[in-house]
Amino acid sequence: MKLIFVVAGLLVGMFVTTAMASGPYLGAAGGVAFYHDGDLSTGGTGEIQYNPGIAATAALGYDFGVLRGEAEFGYRNAKVDTFATFPANDMDTTFYSYMGNVYWDFKTRNITPFVGGGVGLLHGRFTDHYNAFTDSAIGYQLLAGMGLPMTRHLNLDVTYKYQAAAQKFHVGVYDITYASSNVFAGLRYSF
User: What digits encode the pLDDT tens for the residues 139-160?
Assistant: First the structure.
């Protein structure tokens, strides 16, 4: 019987918190992108390696209290270090992402840790001095971080995002895998 009261109290608390904290928000973040070494496949196999790059995101979302949902646009760019076994100083890659994310917030008094995930579309652009190749793929990301309230409406978020493509990108005669680890710092303004 006590368990029923405890569960009922938790549910009421969750709904009260959700009702008090709900509302739309805008977010923007910048950070560092660490592309994972990718596999190259064509007649043979090889590897593509990258230097650290830059990353930025912009998001429009709605805070339901414990859960948040958002539409996110992302940008990542990095120089290619080696392509197969050749140095590739003049090559770079840019990935644009269009993701739908869901976050689970663990609200406390001073900070809000969160975890989440997202799915969407990744658009990759591979360029060198002579060529530019583009391709798109379904992508996903896993997210974890924490929010620090700065004011009643403004949060500072620090977020780790693992992003990957569910399929290979077709670049000329090559098929290339894509995954990256990204560290962001950003602001989230709630209305």
Answer: 999 999 999 999 999 999 999 9
Two tokens, residue 143 = 């997210």
Give the end-to-end CA distance of the chain in Å, rounded to a whole number: 41
Cα separation, 43 vs 174, in Å, equals: 9
Q: Assess whether pLDDT exceeds 70 at residue 130.
A: yes
Q: What is the pLDDT of residues 18-40, one digit of tens each?
A: 444 589 999 999 999 999 988 88
Q: Which residue has the higher pLDDT, 33 or 80?
A: 33
pLDDT of residue 48: 85
For the chain, which domains are there?
Answer: 24-190 (2.40.160.20)
Write the secondary structure of 35-98 as one string of H (helix), E (strand) and C (coil).
ECCEEEECCCEEEEEECCEEEEEEEEEEECCCEEEEEEEEEEEEEEEEECCEECCCCEEEEEEE
CA–CA separation, 69 and 122 (whole Å): 19
Q: How far from the centroid of its chain's Cα atoms is residue 183's Cα? A: 9
| 22 closest CA partner among 72, 61, 71, 73 | 61
| pTM of the shown model | 0.84
